[in-house]
Design goal:
Helix content is 28%, strand content 16%. By secondary structure, the protein is an alpha+beta fold. The protein folds into 2 domains: 221 residues, Jelly Rolls (Sandwich); 30 residues. Pfam families: PhyH. GO terms for molecular function: dioxygenase activity. Its cofactor is Fe(2+).
Length: 299
């Protein structure tokens, strides 16, 4: 897997900065040829086969002519490659980590939009969370086409510059832009960017995988500990396990018995353990000063 990561993915720092600038300016960015065609073909074969037995979604939001399934890290070969694509994870960290201690994998899901599906309601994924909007980003989404994206087959529609503070304004009256792209490309868009799947007016489905990264202190869209319980996650690389929820977010958030949940991935787990501080540097300094003062007063 490490060799595949090297093949798939490191892009120059200059490209990363340019991508971040575009995300901040217009709310989305298309990165071309981020995956080798051989990997795309294998991924598409994996999800196409599983979609055969996956029923259509229920409800107007997901779409009644659309199929979706998660748990992709264990259901599709090389899905881990998407989740840990180095250049994109670096972009997610640059965008999100000013507002959190660490990022997390918010979703890793396969989507198949069938002929006859209507356009999805325009929405912003940040509205999953009820916190204040317009001050910082909650997540970064990445759409990976497995089949060509065309306006006619339901390519993702995006509303340029509808992100950030603009998300507080009424929705734009004009139509969004259908982003046409190819398998191997990566379409990045912010959680505050207005978007939605288009209508599929063709005779064939269009397929994609969406990965997303959110602030580490949020409850993620896909419950990672149920999707990837410890007996599954212990076979992940440590970096992927951390993205999938087996990481403590300072201060002390998401712990198990006062320790990082990654301890659940160890072969021999002690039942009686000591809770251990996991604080940010400023909190650690504040606590150390307090402890020193208290001890000094006692002497």
């Amino acid at each position: 897997m490490s060799a595949l990561l090297a093949i798939a993915g490191t892009r120059p720092l200059r490209r990363r900065h340019r991508t971040i600038a575009q995300l901040r300016e217009q709310g989305f960015c298309l990165m071309r040829q981020m995956l080798p065609q051989a990997i795309v073909e294998e991924l598409d074969q994996d999800i196409a086969e599983r979609f055969l037995d996956t029923p259509f979604c229920e409800g107007g939001f997901y779409g009644t002519r659309t199929k979706r399934f998660g748990k992709l890290l264990i259901r599709a070969a090389h899905a881990r490659l998407l989740a840990e694509q180095p250049a994109i994870v670096a972009i997610a960290r640059d965008l999100l980590e000013p507002h959190c201690d660490t990022i997390q994998l918010n979703v890793c899901q396969a989507i198949e939009v069938h002929p006859g599906e209507i356009a999805q309601v325009p929405h912003r994924d940040q509205d999953m969370w009820h916190g204040p909007k317009g001050t910082h980003e909650y997540l970064l989404n990445v759409m990976w086409p497995m089949t060509p994206f065309r306006e006619a087959n339901g390519a993702t529609r995006l509303w340029p510059r509808s992100h950030g503070e603009a998300a507080l304004a009424p929705p734009p009256s004009k139509a969004g832009v259908a982003i046409e792209c190819e398998p191997g490309d990566a379409l990045l868009f912010l959680g505050s960017t207005l978007h939605g799947a288009g209508a599929n007016t063709t005779t064939t489905p269009r397929r994609a995988i969406v990965t997303g990264y959110s602030l580490g202190w949020l409850k993620p869209y896909e419950n990672p500990w149920l999707a990837y319980p410890p007996d599954v996650a212990r076979h992940f690389p440590a970096s992927l396990a951390a993205l999938a929820g087996y990481s403590q977010h300072r201060p002390n958030l998401g712990n198990v018995d006062g320790q990082c949940p990654s301890r659940l991935l160890e072969p021999d787990i002690e039942d009686h353990v000591a809770a251990i501080d996991a604080l940010t540097p400023d909190q650690q300094a504040m606590v150390a000063e307090h402890v020193a003062r208290e001890r000094s007063d006692r002497t």
